[in-house]
Amino acid sequence: MAITIKKIAEICNISRGTVDRVLNNRGKVKPETEVFIRKIAEQMGYEPNPAGKALAAKKKKLVIGVLLVSEGNPFFDEVIRGIRATGIEYVAYGVRVSIKTMCGYDVRRQCELMDEMKSEVNALIINPISDIRVCNKINELVDHGIFVVTVNTDIANSKRACFVGSDYTNGGETACGIMGLLMKGHAKVGVVTGSFKVSGHNQRIAGFKKIMEKKYPEFQLLEIMESEDDDIRAFEVTTKLLQKYEEMDAVFIVAGGVYGVCRALIGQAREQKITVVSFDSAPTTVEMMKRHVVDVTIYQHPYTQGRDAMQVVFAYLVNGTTPKKERHILKNEIKVLENL
Amino acid sequence: MAITIKKIAEICNISRGTVDRVLNNRGKVKPETEVFIRKIAEQMGYEPNPAGKALAAKKKKLVIGVLLVSEGNPFFDEVIRGIRATGIEYVAYGVRVSIKTMCGYDVRRQCELMDEMKSEVNALIINPISDIRVCNKINELVDHGIFVVTVNTDIANSKRACFVGSDYTNGGETACGIMGLLMKGHAKVGVVTGSFKVSGHNQRIAGFKKIMEKKYPEFQLLEIMESEDDDIRAFEVTTKLLQKYEEMDAVFIVAGGVYGVCRALIGQAREQKITVVSFDSAPTTVEMMKRHVVDVTIYQHPYTQGRDAMQVVFAYLVNGTTPKKERHILKNEIKVLENL
DNA sequence: TTGTAGGCGTTATCAC
DNA sequence: GTGATAACGCCTACAA
Question: Residue B59: what pLDDT?
Fold first, then answer.
């Protein structure tokens, strides 16, 4: 049988209450007693019992806040589905989930919503906009005692406890790896990225280039265009690419705008001659896979991202466990129509 | 706040003990009282609290038995890793894991080991040999009150509570899907299966054929050979295939023997001209991917299979939850070197 | 057949 | 500062 607070109390000849105060840093303990108790607990290898914690947690009425820049992005529909499904399991532990979504990269709005949540939640799951003001606001919440987990996108040098998402560089590497096989090592590739301002997109491109240089010297990267994750814009830039490069036989779609790119290919009747690798599996992307326009897509486990972020938060709030790894990285998977 | 046993007891004006006896089918309750209590519980939507159950479960010293035909099969090394890692999390709940492994498809031995475990475990995770005697033995354990979960391979018409594994047919479909893309729809395919006696292997072949007929009419399936999951045998049959079919430009490896197949390809200096799709990522398979002999491999999440099987068992034993779905199916993923 | 009570481990609330 | 005690929800002896 493992060591408990009660046992430590007996051994130290003090009450469980005091041991609890020490082990949970609640203060109001004489320094000597504190040191002594800590030593004993350490020595005996005390590990809090998750079931006990969970049972006691019911009274706390914990709230997990979720703040996502997700509106109009089908990827996040899945993330939210994972969060909701997991949240239902947690009601028995007295945990409630409060989800707020927003649309577009509006730094001020994200900070505002975080301010609102500051007094209402015990933890926050967020896909932060990459901006110093958001970073500072996150740090502010953390200092206020809120447990913050970033999901899908991380924010550098912030005090967030954990990041749950995929490895962007590896996503690009994987895209190039499969494209190399599909093209037998020879391709003239057009690239449609989301934005040069989004580091995740740039990382994917860097990963793609890295494998290209290492494994596929016959690959030729024609040009990189920005779609701003917008289908219309994607349609326009792809049309330009097609006109400019008659020889183009592959397209790497780094981010959103998949549908727009495909419509451009179809519009120029080049969709059967060009191999397309994209990311994620939005409904329109799936449709384009069924029409054999998109050949393969790289999948980032959106549902699992939501679920795992919730599990990390739950483990902390209810069981008092801090995540083992500060980055929780999911694999990039390759999907064809058959294993979607 | 959710409804508890205590509340039901108050409402019914009887003791918690009696309510507990009813709700957990322990008998020794007057039929009328039983009916009444059940009605109230139903009405109020009683759901046992997992934390309470977990806490009380500590005294039971539960044992999860694991019986795997796994020796010499690297796929199961990963399954076991998932089981072990998950098991460690469960010691705090008084749950112990007892793993027995065996080698080769020895029905009598598997039944013997199940007999041994019958009196020692509260649940069993097993990859059953497809045989009526094993099926009967499983039913015997279930009738004896043991919660049985099959992992990786299911056994038809048994009383097992849940199956955790992948969809074999879809695995074959996925293999054909990606091969179709790699070969631009034109291939003369040699197939090396494990055994015609193993239904999972046959299902994969059926899935492959299905997509072939539907999507790739130009595919030609040359011949199917059995390797008996043995590298030497695989080497031999592949060598024969190579000699017989000069035109062969693709190989579909349905099960084990990947290394043997690859060595044959290398031996005949055909490895660069032939596209290879295999299953799983044994160390030798990874090596052959690095040497560009195997192009892609289909991945069945072995670690996750182990982990999820444990979670299903835990939820039942400790939280009293029966699995929502009787089949817990993991996706078939496509792996290249970059996203292994 | 039913009721009582203590314990599983942690935590909050008192009283001292 | 510290200690005692009653929850949290469930289970199981044992008593009636």
Answer: 86
The DSSP letter of residue B294 is S
Answer whether residue A192 is part of any domain. Answer: yes
Give the nucleotide nearest to B18 (CA→C1').
C2
Kindly report, residue by residue over B272-326, the tens digit of the pLDDT.
999 999 999 999 999 999 999 999 999 999 999 999 999 999 999 999 899 999 9
In terms of residue numbers, what domain contains A39? 5-46
pLDDT in tens, B2-45: 899 999 998 889 899 999 999 988 888 888 899 989 998 998 89
Amino acid at B56: A
Q: What is the mean pLDDT of chain A?
A: 95
From chain A residues 251-310, the ones with a CB under 8 A of any chain B CB are 295-296
Mind telling me how many Å the CA of B11 is from chain A's nearest CA? 21
CA angle A303, A306, A307 (to 5 degrees): 85
In terms of phi and psi (left: phi > 0; alpha: psi -120 to 50; beta: otherwise), the region of B326 is alpha
**How is residue A92 annotated by DSSP?**
G
Specify whether A160 is located in the same domain as A180: no
Structure tokens at B140: 């015997």
Alpha-carbon distance of B258 to B281, in angstroms, equals: 10
Global pTM reads 0.94
Average pLDDT, chain B: 95
Domain contains A339: no
Beta-ladder partners of B148: B124
**What's the CATH code of the domain at A309?**
3.40.50.2300
* B58 CB within 8 Å of a chain A CB: yes
Among B86, B317, B334, the strongest candidate for a mutation testing the A interface, having the largest count of A CBs within 10 A, is B334
Q: Name the minimum distance, in Å, from the CA of A177 to any CA of chain B.
A: 6
